[in-house]
Amino acid sequence: MKLKFLGTGTSQGVPVIGCTCEVCTSENPKDSRLRSSVMVTTDENKKILIDCGPDFRQQMLVNHENTVDIALLTHEHNDHVIGLDDMRPLIFKSGKDMPIYCYQRVGNEVKKRFPYAFADERYPGAPAFELHEIENSSFTVLNTEITPVEVVHYKITVFGFKFKKLAYITDAGFISDVEKEKLKDLDVLILNCIRKFDPHPAHFILPDVIKLFEELKPKQLFLTHISHHLGLHDVEDKQLPPGMHLAYDGLEINF
To answer: Can you say how many angstroms the Cα of residue 169 is from the centroid of all Cα atoms in its chain?
Structure first.
């Protein structure tokens, strides 16, 4: 299987509008971060999208991706769902509703934000979604076992997802001991890391991630959902402990 980072930035993206810091003005493409999302390609070459934010159209074009077989949504915040309307060309091409797997709570929010996709009489150009409610237990789709990992993001629960020995977690500030059991003996762990300093009420910061790396001991850990406050990619990546890396848009991982 393969995972590609379509975006590794926070809800504002990097560069941030109007910011002139060294990260936002960097000419290194690794310092430009679209909103966080990944594409997982299965052993049978099926495409699983995790999250569909406002940069979805650009991400698909830049990465020469032209298919999504199913979408997994971690939670309902706009930087993770508001791009769903841009799935229309894929839906029209397939002639099928787009399957979306998420919490019931998240599905209800999708219905509120895209009511025209669920109307009894839909406008001919409207998207069409097929919602599938998932809970905190493993399920199989596209001949691929997917294990949700429930984490806490401020005051809401958010799903990360585990495939084989890789786990992807974004928008987390707390992981219970029970859920940590799912994250042991991993080849690859991907965690959000919004900045280096100053505790955040909803996200891990670098000391939190280093502590989890030492506790869970994955073979490799990649940071994502990164803000301009974390620093320049080429500088900060070299300062991380061995086995830890800053992810960047377009990076691919085989697992």
So the answer is: 7
Report pLDDT digits (tens) over 87-136: 999 999 999 999 999 999 999 999 999 999 999 999 999 999 999 999 99
First to last CA, the chain: 5
Q: Does pTM surpass 0.90?
A: yes
CA 177, CA 48: separation in Å to the nearest integer?
28
Place of tokens 């994955």: 218
Bond before 124 cis per omega within 30 degrees: no
Query: Phi/psi zone of residue 187: left (φ > 0), alpha (ψ -120 to 50 degrees), beta?
Result: alpha
DSSP strand pairing (156-163 vs 166-168): antiparallel
pLDDT under 50 in the chain at which residues? none
Tokens of 16: 């941030």
44-73 burial, b at 16+ Cβ within 10 Å, e below that, comes to eebbbbbbbbbbbeebbeeeebeebbbbbb
Structure tokens at 100: 């979306």
DSSP 35: B
pLDDT at 69: 98
Q: Torsions phi, psi of 181, nearest 5?
A: -60, -30
Give me the half-sphere count of Cα atoms (radius 13 Å) on the Cβ side of residue 150. 13
